[in-house]
Automatic annotation (TrEMBL):
This is G1/S-specific cyclin-E. It comes from the Eukaryota. It comes from Holothuria leucospilota (Black long sea cucumber). GO terms for biological process: cell division. SUPFAM superfamilies: Cyclin-like. SMART domains: CYCLIN, Cyclin_C. Its main location: nucleus. PANTHER family: CYCLINS.
Amino acid sequence: MYIGRINVVLFILSQQNLWIPVSENSGFNRSALIPTPESEPASPIGQPVDSFSSFRFSNLFPCPLRDRKSPLPKLNWADSNELWKNMLKKEVHYARVSNCLEKHPALDAKMRSILLDWLIEVCEVYHLHRETFFLAQDYVDRYLAETSNVPKMQLQLIGITALFIASKLEEIYPPKLGDFSYVTDGACTDENILDQEILMLKALKWALSPVTVNTWLNVYMQLGQTEEIVQEGSNFLIPKYSPQEFIQITQLLDLCILDEGSWQFSYSTIAATALHHMSSNNLALEVTGLKWDDIAMCVQWMEPFALTIKDLDRVVELRKFRRVMPEDCHNIQTHADNLQLLVSESYWIHHCFRSLMSKIITL
């Protein structure tokens, strides 16, 4: 895990990620509250990704709220239509901003990518849930959208504070305040995090419960098993989908959420598109209530990331964690070499774009 200050040396002079991996022997005592994993080789981190702004798309065919029918089955604990309407209303209430860095000249998309990748590593070390990370990611983006002129020196403080807030909401046994300041290697004190927490809560107007991309994916994948659930008379809240398939799709989400192009689409659309790429288009449309026109642009944006994940052909292993129930292990956030993948995919996209333009010019 990469710790240290987000400063001029990182983002201007070196332009490389120089945070010290906690998995290496850094000389600091590990947290006594939550055991850290065994020492592992540091993940290779390459040059931060260039802007993908040339390849971002706007969803020109948003599905009207009234036309998006509920795919939820009849529930014995809630009105499925009302539940679906509330989820859609929340998505409107927590609408995403197309460029949350527009009012921050000192920041760029590369810094955000590095920050989110580091937060994923923090989540893995403390065995935090995927939902906790995606809540923190949402808080970071919305905070930046609501503020202006944030200096780069404060970016790590914003990120770790967002994770601190998210863990208190989502985790049964969240890490202590000192554990969050510890992973910053002295860059953020307990007092800094508490002060920033107040600023963030005010900026977010205490709106802390968005329907995250992770939640949408859970709902969609559970809907894919509706027939089995109905036949067994099971509770819809008990996951029936394959944990391995879920992890494979979340690998794609972890990668593409680092890209600034994700700002152009709602969380429900991103989750549906990931299901389209990693499963099937018919299933994605069936369980989401969306039409092809609603996800077409997002499919185009996400395609290079999906191809990268598929080309890796990783063996999806369901990792086990101490103090985590086996049936909950797939919900624990894990880290991969997403920054390196983002870099490689950036060059791949630019290369294809130049090739395409040269063919058009030739014609």
